[in-house]
Amino acid sequence: MITTNVYASIRDIKKYALDHKVPIMVDEGIDFLTTFIIKNQIHTVLEIGSAIGYSAIMMALSHPNLKITTIEKDETRYLEALRNIKKLDLEDRITLLFKDALEVSIEEKVDLVFIDAAKGQNIRFFEKFSNNLNERGFIITDNMNFHGLVGKEEEIKSRNLRGLVRKIREYKEYLEKQSNYKVEFLAIGDGIAIAEKKGHN
What is the DSSP letter of 131? Predict the structure, then answer.
């Protein structure tokens, strides 16, 4: 049961994100993610990109036995995530790592890998952390539409932004070629991709 104090803390986290321009999942996206965890009996999650801990906290609150390992390389965001996780007494269920995800070595197997970090590195994240998936596990990626810009590269004036959006489109094409995964793209929140690992028959 989520108490009034917990709701207040979540409100504070969302306000901090807005005030400091920290991208966090939109409500529709987080609702989908937490429902997905319950529906698919997810017990362990590896999150790439903690930001200020919002999505990890919301996942943990959705399921009392869920264990999450989450990675963040930005020190300011890492420290804020640490504060938020401690404030909600979730240190026993959320392990926060201050590292570059591409340099960290994680041995544990998980039911779900959630990618919500540097969009230009999605393919590398997928390749690296797919090794941490249990049989029939899932890789979920957020921001597949990137504010509605994917597929509209020619309209983007900023060269850097155009390059980033192109990389997201290339990641989508990469996912579509993964024969070991059943892939689905959903127009939820800012666009979500679900890759379900096919089990051995």
Answer: G
Could you tell me if 171 and 123 are in contact, meaning their C-beta atoms sit under 8 angstroms apart?
yes
pLDDT over threshold 80, residue 150: no
Q: What is the DSSP letter of 155?
A: G
Does residue 118 carry a pLDDT above 80?
Answer: no
Per 3-state DSSP, the chain is made up of helix, strand and coil in percentages (nearest 5) of: 45, 20, 35
Q: How many CB atoms lie within 10 A of CB 34?
A: 19
89: left (phi over 0), alpha (psi -120 to 50) or beta: left
Nearest-angstrom CA–CA distance, 133 and 180: 12
Q: Which residues are bridge partners to 196 per DSSP?
A: 138, 182
The rounded distance, in Å, linking the Cα atoms of 101 and 71 is: 6
